[in-house]
């Protein structure tokens, strides 16, 4: 057994799918339930960490011990994460932030009319949160990204490990039924620079979260 480096440390966890509004009552969203991120927040609390949970809208109850920062859009999540990360030791980005948002948000509910069978929506890229974090990251801080992929899991995930400036990447095959988005179970592969990929069995998100936090504790050099 190794000792617990996470006790008393500050850990930021993100969870859920961000929403990008089209008008006051409509948004572009995704299938993330927040379950993976909330389980990671709980696992970090259980290891004695002070946890800040930056959460997109979910139906879940956060761990009572966590400080919760509710956000809606990817830009709001970026601002909350960058600010919390600068007074923290570890970041785990389990959220599914929208990669695109509508260029304009209508002030009023968009109406349909008899002569308009089509509506064009122009989208623009949102900021990459992990890349913003990489710019302020100090030596000793540890960051973990996820890669949710429907094909070429390890190739795409390895690319994200390099591109996003993270210490560790958790690859999540979201094409498999019963794991990934929304369910209670997951199966992931840990990618670390210069280490062979390590695949977990299919387990509950609670158990996967514990493996993720244990892995961080094992490889983090404070
Ligand atoms: O919430 P659940 O229903 O429990 O589902 C869990 C999950 C499938 C959402 C989770 O396990 C997962 O894989 N989360 C990452 C989802 C995602 O956005 O993956 P990605 O491959 O598109 O992004 C790669 C990494 O960059 C992720 O850590 C993501 O949080 C981050 N990112 C993405 C977009 C963006 N604008 N900024 C980012 O930092």
From TrEMBL:
Cofactor comment text: Binds 1 FMN per subunit.
Metabolic or biological pathway: Cofactor biosynthesis; coenzyme A biosynthesis; CoA from (R)-pantothenate: step 2/5; Cofactor biosynthesis; coenzyme A biosynthesis; CoA from (R)-pantothenate: step 3/5
Entry EC number(s): 4.1.1.36, 6.3.2.5
Residues binding CTP: 99, 109, 127-130, 146, 160, 164
Keyword Nucleotide-binding in record: no
Family: In the N-terminal section; belongs to the HFCD (homo-oligomeric flavin containing Cys decarboxylase) superfamily.
Name the UniProt record assigns to this protein: Coenzyme A biosynthesis bifunctional protein CoaBC
Encoding gene (name): coaBC
């Amino acid at each position: 057994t190794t000792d617990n480096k996470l006790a008393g440390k500050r850990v930021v966890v993100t969870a859920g799918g961000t929403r990008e509004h089209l008008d006051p009552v409509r948004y572009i969203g995704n299938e993330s339930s927040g379950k993976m991120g909330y389980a990671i927040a709980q696992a970090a609390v259980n290891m004695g960490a002070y946890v800040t949970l930056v959460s997109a809208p979910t139906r879940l109850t956060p761990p009572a011990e966590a400080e919760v920062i509710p956000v809606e859009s990817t830009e709001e999540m970026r601002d909350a994460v960058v600010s919390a990360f600068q007074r923290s030791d570890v970041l785990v980005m389990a959220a599914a932030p929208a990669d695109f948002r509508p260029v304009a948000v209508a002030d009023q509910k968009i109406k349909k009319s008899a002569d308009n069978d089509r509506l064009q929506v122009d989208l623009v890229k949102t900021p990459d949160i992990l890349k913003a974090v990489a710019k302020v990251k100090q030596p000793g801080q540890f960051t973990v990204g996820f890669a949710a992929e429907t094909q070429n899991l390890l190739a795409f995930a390895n690319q994200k490990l390099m591109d996003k400036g993270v210490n560790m990447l958790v690859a999540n095959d979201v094409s498999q039924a019963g794991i990934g988005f929304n369910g209670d179970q997951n199966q992931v592969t840990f990618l670390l620079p210069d280490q062979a990929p390590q695949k977990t069995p299919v387990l509950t998100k609670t158990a996967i979260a514990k493996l993720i936090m244990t892995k961080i504790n094992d490889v983090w050099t404070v």
